[in-house]
Automatic annotation (TrEMBL):
Occurrences of domain HTH deoR-type (ranges): 5-60
A GO molecular function held by the record: DNA-binding transcription factor activity
SMART domains: DeoRC, HTH_DEOR
Keywords from the UniProt entry: Transcription, Transcription regulation
Presence of keyword Transcription regulation: yes
InterPro entries per record: Carb_Metab_HTH_regulators, DeoR-like_C, DeoR_HTH, NagB/RpiA_transferase-like, WH-like_DNA-bd_sf, WH_DNA-bd_sf
PANTHER family per the UniProt record, alphabetical: AGA OPERON TRANSCRIPTIONAL REPRESSOR-RELATED, HTH-TYPE TRANSCRIPTIONAL REGULATOR SRLR-RELATED
This protein's record includes keyword Transcription regulation: yes
Name by which UniProt lists this protein: DeoR family transcriptional regulator
Length: 261
């Protein structure tokens, strides 16, 4: 563990960035100092604008600005493409599928452009752009309120449209995911809609590249159903996948060619 006050405080900020919320007691044990020392650290970090303290002695990193869809398009491009290829292979002719907003699900839409006898409903503008010229794919837009950062629709109109349909499969994206809490997003509107998506679909897939596993960048969460499939890339560490497998989640790790490994 870091020695010295400054080194410890820097380590607390790093830990908050990667793991999210932590209690005073947890930090005290982690850094082998008294709870009062941790409280002084948190007070100083809060004063400096590096952390925000929450009820019960827990603390959270000050919210990072949400990355726009345009910014995310260039992240982990090869991993997203491989995940999308595997996901597209799961879709059968005649199915009705639901596609979330986001860059990885947008890559899946790209793979589905040549499909026939397929109905795709979506909340994502990227999906609409990819499938606009796909003459043999029937496209339904759920509509709603546009979140420009994520280029997706949310809100009561999207929820009402969703209630009128059921789906063979739903493919979701996420800003982060943990085995215990589910999908992490920037807003409660997003997480509520994702939960509703899972309830209207027979099979649920979450498409995330390895860097998002265990990540808690925000404080809005969507609970996952009892049965769902996590699809990620080969960079995922076994230790990051173990909690999902322990919770009964089906885990698919995809190689660069788009096949499961």
């Amino acid at each position: 563990m870091p020695r010295g006050t400054q080194a410890r405080r820097e380590a607390i900020v790093r830990l908050a960035t990667t793991s999210g919320l932590a209690s005073v007691e947890e930090l005290s044990a982690t850094f082998d100092v008294t709870p009062s020392t941790i409280r002084r650290d948190l007070a100083q970090l809060e004063s400096a604008g590096e952390l925000a303290r929450t009820y019960g002695g827990a603390m959270a990193i000050v919210a990072h600005p949400e990355a726009s869809l345009r910014q995310r398009l260039g992240e982990a491009f090869e991993a997203k493409s491989a995940i999308a290829k595997w996901a597209a292979a799961q879709v059968g002719a005649g199915e009705t599928v639901l596609l979330d907003a986001g860059s990885t699900v947008g890559a899946l839409a790209h793979e589905l452009r040549g499909a026939r006898d397929l109905t795709v409903a979506t909340t994502g503008m990227t999906v609409l752009e990819e499938l606009a010229g796909a003459e043999r794919v029937h496209v339904e837009c759920l509509g709603g309120t546009l979140r420009r950062l994520s280029a997706g629709f949310v809100g009561p109109l999207a929820e009402a449209a969703l209630s009128r349909m059921t789906f063979d499969r739903v493919f979701l994206g996420a800003d982060g995911v943990t085995a215990d809490d589910g999908i992490c997003e920037a807003s409660l509107q997003q997480t509520r809609l994702k939960e509703l998506m899972t309830r209207r679909s027979d099979a649920v897939y979450l498409l995330v590249h390895a860097a998002k596993l265990g990540r808690r960048p925000f404080h809005a969460w969507a609970r996952m159903p009892e049965r769902w499939t996590l699809v990620t890339d080969a960079a995922a560490e076994p230790s990051a996948l173990a909690p999902f497998r322990a919770n009964g989640v089906q885990v698919v790790v995809v190689g660069t060619d788009g096949s499961a490994i």
